[in-house]
Specification:
Helix content is about 45%, strand content about 20%. It is of the alpha+beta class.
Amino acid sequence: MNKPMMKPERKRRLILVLGSVLAVAAGIALVLYAMRQNINFFYTPTQIVSGEAMQQAGLGRTINIGGLVVKGSVKRDPSSLKMEFKLTDTESEVVVSYEGILPDMFREGQGIIGVGKLGAGNTVQATQILAKHDETYLSPEVASAIKDAEARAKAKLKKQRAAAASNAAASNAAASNAYSSDFSEPVSAPSVASPAATTESAPATTGQKP
């Protein structure tokens, strides 16, 4: 028995629907890819030093980095607009290179966000520096990074203190045991000859008169 043939008009509609679905799927994929390429992930100095940023973003990928400008770290090239400075989240530091005009509110000790490419050796080549006009303002990303870094520093300090206390207790216990063992050993008293034994061993004297 022969199977019924699909009508040409129905076949064209089916091909048109399948083509439209494929076109929409391809368009969505391209949009998502473009959005991913345009998204600049935010990383802290600690995330860069630990290698997390390199693992996720990769070398040469544009990222955002935020932190406080380390005091005394700004170095300027007198013959150009090139400069470099260090950013910190109070736990780790990263060297940032930049060429251009800095925002008016760029200050040492202030929070800023740099946009640039991740380089080798935990460095960032920034193409843009963002700083708010208010000296007291700290961006949420930078504030969160500093808060997290301080929490990690406190936990690390607490762990170090606990380890030091444990080591001190172990040392004191060892010293106490050694002190106790010194006094627990029996001490042999010096032998003293009895008077009777001394008398018996003394040489006999004659009764002759001189």
